[in-house]
Amino acid sequence: MCRILQARYLRAMQAPHGPRVPRPWAAALSGALAAGVAAATSELVAAAVPASTSAVVSVGAVAIALQPPGAKDLVVALFGLNDKAALNTLVLIVTLVLAAVAGLVAARRPRAGAGIFVAFGVLAALAGAVQPNAPVLAQVANAALSTAAALVALRALLARAPAIRPDRPVLPDHPDRPVRPDRPDAGPADRLAGRSDEPWTRRRFLIASAGTLGGAVVAGAIGRSVTDSEHFEGVVTSTKLPLALHPVSPLDAGQSLSVPGITPLVVPADAFYRIDTALLVPQVEVDHWQLRVTGMVERPLTFTYDQLLAMPLYEQYVTIACVSNRVGGHLVGNALWTGVRLKDVLAEAGVKPGATQIVGRSYDDFSVGFPTAWAMAPDREPMIAVGMDRAPLPAAHGFPARLIVPGLYGYVSATKWLTEIELTTREAVDGYWVPLGWAKDGPILTQSRIDVPSD
Questions:
Q1: Distance CA 213, CA 109 (A)
Q2: Can you give 392-431 as a three-state secondary structure string?
Q3: pTM for the full model?
Q4: How many CB atoms lie within 10 A of CB 276?
């Protein structure tokens, strides 16, 4: 009977005294993993609903819009063509760190921790809602589902996390002395009273964490892969271009360079550099796309894609370069462009006197501005390009149409996914990069590069 009473007492002493508090490292890991689940869920929803964008992309787009002067130069200098991947990674890392802090808060104040995750969800919804051409309902639904998934994961992980015992059991004959099973002089009763399932709890938590991490990585990778495929391949619906009125003669043997390792004179579209402010290539539905010519013109014009293709097309080789291209860099390329002469379009619209600037606007709200006099110069042929290497423009390079202006850096001229050409004054409008400290004029100066030997 005494042994039975003693066993009952010891079991009573092992009952928790107060709220269960997960260990800090486990709480922080739970928060970070919950954020990973949210990011993966957001990527899957974005893949299933093409009209929406994932939280990482939405927040990254806002970061681009709010970037301080000089940020783009620094990012391109550090990461080159991987600048967008670097931004996505940075957004994810910052999110995971903040979520780890939220996990620490949730360990002791569950409602406060959950509130932090809800606040993250609201910010993601707002970031998505302000994206150009983004359905607000789809963005809000994406953020809501992602936040719900994060809260479920957080609660499940914290419930399995190893905990700090707030009150250790005590022996009846020593009411002020806590049990110390690690003491050499601890007796059998001491060791039994202080026995813990801590190793098994830790092991179970780590197994659950590894499974959560693996599932989030796989789900997120699948979602992003589907999204990238849709945005890069799923928007070009035109399969061929009409023949140009005056095709350019093909390059002959004397115009090619056969030196191993040297840059080709004509860079293929799949190897052509891409620098723009879009984290995801815009999905432009060509059946609903229009190009408007507005502003200081006698006759405002509107073109559909088919109407643009029906106009006389011409071809020319034009080399374009990014202003961030460094000496020896690869942010420069020459291609065979097919399109409509910008001068023909402006002549049809009738440019009013005093219109000193041409502003190009993109489907994703990007804008450029360059002097009207530059476009009208007799020795240049700016164009509304619809083709690249005698094929429709790839989605990543501006389908359905873009501006190509010889002799100007892209940040003041090369508008991809073009939707509007406005005639205005130089003082009335600043292009996207000008308020960030970039020069309003961007003529390309003579450049050269040594390809081989490379070092």
A1: 24
A2: ECCHHHCCCCEEECCCECHHHCCCCCEEEEEEECCCCCCC
A3: 0.72
A4: 22
Q: Determine how many CB atoms are found less than 10 A away from the CB of residue 161.
A: 26
Q: Around 13, how many Cα atoms within 13 Å sit in the side-chain half-sphere?
A: 22
Tens-place pLDDT, residues 347-364: 999 999 999 999 999 998
Residue pLDDT, tens place only, 419-455 = 999 999 999 999 998 988 889 999 988 777 788 886 6
pLDDT in tens, 208-246: 999 999 999 998 889 888 877 766 654 555 567 888 887
Do the beta carbons of residue 211 and residue 30 sit within 8 Å? no
Burial class (CB in 10 A: 0-12, 13-18, 19+), 103: buried
Under 8 Å between Cβ of 339 and 386: yes
* Cβ-proximal residues to 27 (8 Å cutoff; 6+ apart), any chain: 103, 104, 106, 107, 158, 161
Q: Compute CA 78 distance to the chain's CA centroid, rounded to the nearest angstrom.
A: 17
Q: 106 near 158, Cβ under 8 Å?
A: yes
CB 238 within 8 A of CB 285: no
pLDDT above 90: residue 260: no
Secondary element (H or E) of residue 150 = helix 136-160
Tell me which H or E stretch contains 93: helix 83-108
Confidence category of residue 375, pLDDT binned at 50, 70, 90? very high
Long-range contacts made by residues 55-59, C-beta under 8 angstroms, separation at least 24? 55/124, 55/127, 55/128, 55/142, 55/143, 55/146, 56/88, 56/91, 56/92, 56/95, 57/88, 57/279, 57/280, 58/124, 58/127, 58/128, 58/131, 58/139, 59/91, 59/95, 59/123, 59/124, 59/127
Q: What angle do CA 184, 186, 189 make, to 5 degrees?
A: 155
The residue among 362, 335, 359, 361 whose CA lies nearest residue 346 is: 359
Compute the mean pLDDT over every residue in the chain, rounded to the nearest whole number. Answer: 82
Both structure tokens of 328: 């020896």
Give per-residue burial for 327-351: e unless 16+ CB within 10 Å, then b: eebbbbbbbbbbbbbbbebbeebeb
